[in-house]
Design a protein that fits this description.
The complex is a heterodimer. By secondary structure, chain A is an alpha+beta fold. Chain A contains five helices and five strands. In chain A, strand 3 and strand 4 form a beta hairpin. The chains are: A alpha+beta, B alpha+beta.
Chain lengths: 155, 268
């Protein structure tokens, strides 16, 4: 079994994984970081979105072994425990969720979007969330939250 | 997913050796198709040889009338590249419309072409621009590279290194995406070059990407969207599935061709 060594939310981790272990399985089952969700497991829904070296990726569509040497950020890594970062706060204030299952992936994708484009238009936000599916909200409040979060992060 | 032996070689020759020594190996580039395929058990290789650690396979170079894109270059990188936007803007547009942002951060041009999904975007650019696929063994012209649905003329173990796109006078791409998968229900790449007009269609052909001869003829004398109206697209070899029948696809080919020509002409 390959041994992998990577940084997850700023902490160095070294573990053995099977070749077939998905990154999302490694995050949830080996590291017990269950904020990253498995929605569809078919690369569609984006609930499993994490940051790989700063870029949003679907952790159900990457092998854990491929993250050897990488820096991974999950939803748990966005803010110290008990606090919300500006994007999380914007989701809260805009009611950008109903059941909340897609929310970790939405927030991770939104953070990457804003890092690439600090002042996005509504259309850019909608296209930027192409890879994240929400079955509750109809997206209106999610888009409002991302625009608000982007504004808060610009300061 | 069945387990496999995972290796991540750091050179092309080590990758080819690892592939050759295994019972039934597959290369992995971006993995955005291969991992779902493995999950479904549609492929059960004994070995996965990951190409992600090989240096020099990613990158974009514009020189001598060509845009050369390394096989491991991610779609997001091509979409954002100032060089590609300047030399062949249609290629950046195409890359920026593949899948979704997360998929574009992992998926690669080499992986897309090696897989040759009949609804993938990149094959239409390779065929439409008459690009050359450069491997670790040889160079293949677009027409010699594709070999039907999910099939190419790559030999077992052969690795794509880069794709060389000749810079056209103008080019445009338009696709009608399946709203769920975002694969092309029909995608049309048109290019006007010194040696003529090329029109390549993806998403519609039973044998994968193909050139639409009737639209090429119509555009040769008059490179305008209106000229496409007079062309007849044969339905004989078009796909028939739950999403669209051949007649619907034939119509979409003309509609997408017109949009692509407008974009090439700076009007879309």
């Amino acid at each position: 079994m390959p041994e992998i060594s990577l940084t997850v939310n700023g902490e160095r981790v070294t573990k053995s994984v099977e070749g077939r272990t998905l990154l999302v399985e490694f995050i949830r089952e080996s590291l017990k970081l269950t904020g990253t969700h498995i929605g569809c497991d078919t690369s569609q829904c984006g609930a499993c979105t994490v940051h790989l070296n700063g870029k949003a990726v679907k952790s159900c569509t990457m092998l854990a072994a491929q993250a050897d040497g990488a820096e991974i950020t999950t939803i748990e890594g966005l803010a110290p425990e008990g606090q919300l970062n500006p994007m999380q706060k914007a989701f809260n204030e805009n009611h950008g969720l109903q059941c909340g299952f897609c929310t970790p992936g939405m927030v991770m994708r939104a953070m990457a979007l804003v890092a690439e484009n600090p002042n996005p238009t509504e259309e850019e936000v909608r296209h930027g969330l192409d890879g994240n599916i929400c079955r509750c909200t109809g997206y209106q409040n999610i888009v409002a939250a991302v625009l608000d979060g982007a504004k808060a992060m610009r300061g | 997913m069945e387990d496999f032996t995972y290796t991540r070689p750091s050179s092309l020759s080590d990758a080819a050796t690892a592939h050759g020594n295994a019972d039934d190996a597959m290369y992995m580039s971006g993995g955005q198709t291969l991992i779902p395929v493995l999950k479904q058990g549609l492929a059960m290789p004994t070995d996965i040889v990951d190409l992600n650690a090989i240096g020099d396979l990613a990158g974009i170079e514009v020189a001598g009338g060509f845009v050369t894109i390394g096989a491991m270059t991610r779609h997001a990188v091509v979409a954002a590249s100032a060089e590609v936007k300047s030399a062949i803007p249609a290629l950046a547009v195409l890359a920026g419309g593949i899948g979704d942002p997360q998929v574009r951060n992992r998926g690669t041009i080499g992986g897309s072409l090696a897989n040759n999904d009949p609804s993938a975007d990149y094959p239409s650019a390779v065929m439409g621009l008459n690009a050359t696929v450069v491997t670790d063994q040889r160079e293949l012209a677009a027409e010699d590279y594709f070999d039907g649905m999910f099939a190419t003329n790559l030999e077992p173990g052969e690795i794509i290194k880069a794709v060389k796109f000749p810079i056209p006078e103008k080019a445009g791409y338009a696709k009608f995406p399946n709203p769920a998968s975002r694969y092309a229900l029909v995608g049309v790449f048109v290019a006007k070059t010194a040696s003529g007009v090329r029109v390549a269609v993806t998403g519609a052909g039973q044998e994968g990407v193909f050139r639409a001869a009737s639209i090429e003829d119509a555009l040769s004398g008059d490179f305008s969207a209106a000229a496409v109206d007079g062309a007849t697209v044969p339905t004989d070899d078009l796909m028939n599935d739950m999403h669209a029948d051949p007649e619907y696809r034939a119509n979409l080919i003309k509609v997408m061709a017109k949009r692509a020509v407008d974009r090439a002409n700076g009007q879309g």
